[in-house]
Amino acid sequence: MSVTDRCNFRCPYCMPRQHYERHRFLPRSDLLTFEEIARVVRVVSGLGVTKVRLTGGEPLLRAELHRLLELVVRAAPVEVALTTNGVLLARKADALARAGLRRVTVSLDALDPQVFRAMSDSDHDVGDVLAGIAAAERAGLSPIKINTVVRRGVNDGELLPIARRFRHTGHVVRFIEYMDVGTTNAWKPSDVVPASEILERISSEFPLEALPSGGMGEVARRYRYTDGGGEIGVIASVTAPFCGGCTRLRLSSEGKLYACLFAAFGDDVRALLRSGADDAAIAELVTRVWERREDRYSELRARHPRSLPRVEMSYIGG
Ligand code: SAM
Ligand code: SF4
């Protein structure tokens, strides 16, 4: 669930600055309220959803996010996780954990300050992200997942430093192949560092062995350091698509429902919420979207022209 389409970073692979300078972000009245989001969670929980991830844009830009946590946890027996760029996490981790947050994923593409700046196109300090991870640890949110998108020639030199930094911490770095989400990031196949190469480079210094899959819906392939240094994951959605095992439904911050990260159009849940529809009508819409789902973009990637419309990741939530 995306709680905002705004962000304090301009990662060129997600929200390239030249494009977002002229972008009109959603007015506040278009965003689902916390009460509306909690209601949707209650309804989808009744349909079998057990895990909710709050994302964005940058979810920590949404004021009082801990209040949403409280409402969601009260509304339904779901595990709530958060994906954040971590810059504001040091200030907010405690309140979020107390409100019922169970898991956090922090995106961190580089430790080197200059490379961090190039990947995030922001003046924020990588030290703030590391402080956010430390605060999340203190708040009891371990083990933390660290998401690292890998772009050839930009941050691939950071693979080993990041792996080294998080060995023996209990946290799990997931290296992500750069994906062609949206239409603004000028993605090229040559920008992608394939998961096989990521694994080779890391295991050249820290030998790895494969672990069994985390089960249905798990997007990362898991590996552990043979010396007991912990675990990493790779998300190979370009070179080894996993559409067949995908169990995710996505709700944008204005209440559009998508069954795929690469979809062009979403179904309008907000219209139902604001027209007095009962829970059964909302459940029916969600069920319809899920049942008619045929998306398998990543598996068919080569056949899709780049010019087809596709929703942006900062809008739909990553
Ligand atoms: N702002 C938060 C963050 O960065 O963690 C949450 C939203 S962000 C869209 C969620 C995740 O999507 C991040 O880990 C980000 O690195 C990843 N992401 C964004 N664009 C991507 C792309 N083109 N390919 C692969 N991952 C991407
Ligand atoms: Fe913002 Fe996250 Fe997208 Fe970077 S990846 S621009 S932090 S939403």
Q: How would you describe what is shown here?
A:
The protein has 318 residues and is an alpha/beta fold. The chain has a single domain (17-316), classed as Aldolase class I (TIM Barrel, Alpha-Beta Barrel), CATH 3.20.20. The protein is 32% helix and 15% strand. The protein is built from 11 helices and 11 strands. Strand 1, helix 3 (65-75) and strand 2 (79-84) form a beta-alpha-beta unit. 40% of the residues are buried. The protein binds S-adenosylmethionine and iron/sulfur cluster. The site of S-adenosylmethionine (SAM) has 20 residues, from strand 2, strand 4 and helix 11.
The order of strands across the largest sheet is 1-2-3-4-5-8-7-6
Bound molecules: S-adenosylmethionine, iron/sulfur cluster
Low-confidence stretches: none
User: How many helical stretches?
Assistant: 11
The CATH superfamily name is: Aldolase class I
Overall outline: globular
CATH class: Alpha Beta
Order of helices and strands: HHEHEHEHHEHEHEEEEEEHHH
- Please give the domain count: 1
CATH topology: TIM Barrel
Number of strands: 11
Which band does the percent of strand residues land in? Answer: 5-15%
- Give the C-alpha Rg: 19 Å
Query: What's the average pLDDT?
Result: 93
Architecture per CATH nomenclature, i.e. the level-2 architecture? Alpha-Beta Barrel
- Distance between the ends: 9 Å
Structural class: alpha/beta
- Roughly what percent helix? 25-40%
